[in-house]
Design brief:
313 residues, mainly alpha, MetI-like fold, 2 domains, 77% helix, BPD_transp_1_N
């Protein structure tokens, strides 16, 4: 396990270097000049050139990249071109909202997905199985922005059960839970559908195994057979899907945060891209990439606890 962690950390460093290079070059090659945006429509050419020199944008691209890379390894992600705020401070301010939304969404996805998948497997080829399959396909197909708008229209505007948007209260309070409810359902629906299909497939495979038939033949209670023999052995592929989806949720909150006016990293990224704020975009992407790799490392560690037969030697 220690060797796995060391290898993954080394891979993480290489991955982040590669991602930082791709994002840096993409932002600088794309059309648009941040100096002109900062200067505004009334800025003269001399003003724009002064801004470029002040930001270091007149240096060769590789020189700018290596300066940026040196800052990453020293903990300095630079300063926002727009607000002059340190990138790390801006991300730290907004990241809790994104993390809370992602955690709430994956909880919704796990509760709905795993429960539906298990019941569908136990009631194979029944009306419930068919209905859950149709709903799962719908959940995967429905775009987040459309589902979010519909939920706001029904539950926030018409019924007034939940607030329209924003995330200003702590998530452990009643008001905070209400603010998280609709965004979490919107973001977690697609993941719930995928988890449900994987849970169903894994459970169907395990239920037909010889050791399950043996347990039933010995008179083990059906509840114990399902919980101790079937569910635990079916969880390996399900955990993989959950881990991948949680990583995607951390980086995929952009649309949901925009629809529900949540000040998270995703919304910060959209605003920074529109403003050509290179340091802010690069810092946000690096954060998402780091979290995605760390989530996958945690999933690998969880494997060993669930199934001791798995070895990382």
């Amino acid at each position: 396990m220690a060797g796995l962690i060391v290898r993954r950390v080394f891979q993480l460093v290489l991955l982040l270097i590669g991602i930082s290079f791709i994002v840096f070059m993409s932002m600088h090659i794309a059309p648009g000049d941040p100096a002109s945006i900062i200067g505004g429509p009334t800025a003269t050419q001399e003003d724009v050139e002064a801004i470029r020199e002040n930001l270091g944008l007149n240096e060769p691209l590789l020189t700018q990249y290596f300066d940026y890379l040196r800052g990453i390894f020293t903990g300095d992600l630079g300063f926002s071109y727009q607000t002059k705020q340190a990138v790390s401070e801006a991300i730290i301010d907004r990241f809790p909202n994104t993390l809370n939304l992602a955690i709430a969404s994956i909880i919704v996805a796990i509760v709905i997905g795993v429960t539906t998948g298990i019941i569908s497997a136990l009631k194979h080829n029944t009306w419930f199985d068919g209905l859950s399959t149709v709903i799962a396909l719908g959940g995967i197909s429905i775009p987040n922005f459309w589902l979010g708008a519909i939920l706001i229209l029904i539950f926030a505007v018409n019924l007034q059960w939940f607030p329209v948007g924003g995330l200003t209260e702590p998530f452990w309070t009643i008001e905070g839970m209400k603010q998280l409810a609709l965004p979490a359902i919107t973001l977690g629906t697609g993941s719930a559908a995928m988890i449900a299909r994987m849970s169903r497939s894994a459970m169907l495979e395990v239920i037909r195994a010889d050791y399950v038939r043996t347990a039933r033949a010995k008179g083990v209670r059906e509840k114990s057979v399902i919980m101790m023999h079937c569910l635990r052995n079916a969880m390996i592929p399900v955990i993989t899907v959950i881990g991948l989806n949680f990583g995607f949720l951390l980086g995929g909150t952009i649309i949901t945060e925009s629809v529900f006016a949540i000040n998270g990293v995703g919304r910060l990224m959209i605003e920074s891209i529109a403003a050509r704020d290179f340091p802010m975009v690069q810092g946000s992407v690096l954060l998402v990439a780091t979290l995605f790799v760390l989530v996958n490392l945690i999933v690998d560690i969880v494997y060993a606890f669930i199934d001791p037969r798995i070895s990382y030697e």
